[in-house]
Write a structure and sequence with these properties.
Shape: globular
Number of domains: 1
Largest sheet: 7 strands, mixed
Strand content: 35-45%
Distance between the termini: 19 Å
CATH topology: Aminopeptidase
Structural class: alpha+beta
Number of helices: 5
Helix content: 25-40%
Number of strands: 9
Radius of gyration: 15 Å
Strand order of the largest sheet: 3-4-5-6-7-9-8
Length: 172
């Protein structure tokens, strides 16, 4: 798919992608926005390898990596909670290389994930959640076609803050 800088490709995650992903969050705040405390800051390759292995055993979830035109990892996401009876899948842990944010890579990666869900998995609904203090990600997901369905205020504690979550979806 054509992105701001060329062609973006989506492929299954490989453990060698960890060396890239570990460099994409420079501070604990951004890190928490990405993983909601599912990992410990700072991110390590070992944490990603454990995460990868847990999803190897999960028939309803898998990790994906977005590549640029040179084949270099530029983004990552998780497809999980695949439900083939209700024809849905949930996206999570969406992140783009911090040096490339704001250039359209996130929109293209999410658009490809939605296309994969609709055309390959043959689901009719794709969902995700985004914290209310992450307006750039929220805008990115809207640009990829997702819409807000529900908002839960103050459900995630971070230091002295309480973050809300927008639950978003797109249907075919």
């Amino acid at each position: 798919m054509k992105g701001a800088k060329g062609v973006i490709r989506l492929r299954p995650y490989k453990q060698t992608d960890a060396e890239y992903i570990c460099k994409w969050t420079a501070d604990e705040y951004t890190f928490a926005q990405w993983c909601a405390d599912k990992f410990t800051y700072p991110l390590t390759a070992e944490q990603l390898h454990s995460y990868y292995h847990s999803y190897e055993k999960d028939n309803k979830g898998w990790l994906m990596t977005a590549l640029d035109q040179k084949g270099t990892p530029v983004g990552h996401l998780l497809m999980r909670r695949a439900n083939y009876q209700s024809n849905s899948v949930h996206l999570g842990f969406i992140i783009v290389d911090s040096t490339l944010r704001g250039k359209g890579y996130g929109k293209e990666m999410v658009s490809l994930a939605v296309k994969y869900a609709f055309d390959i998995l043959l689901v009719r609904r794709v969902t995700l959640g985004v914290f209310d203090n992450n307006p750039n990600a929220h805008y990115c997901y809207k640009a990829a076609g997702l819409t807000d369905e529900k908002y839960d205020e103050g459900v995630f504690p971070f230091n002295d803050e309480k973050w809300g979550i927008y639950y978003m979806a797109i249907e075919r």
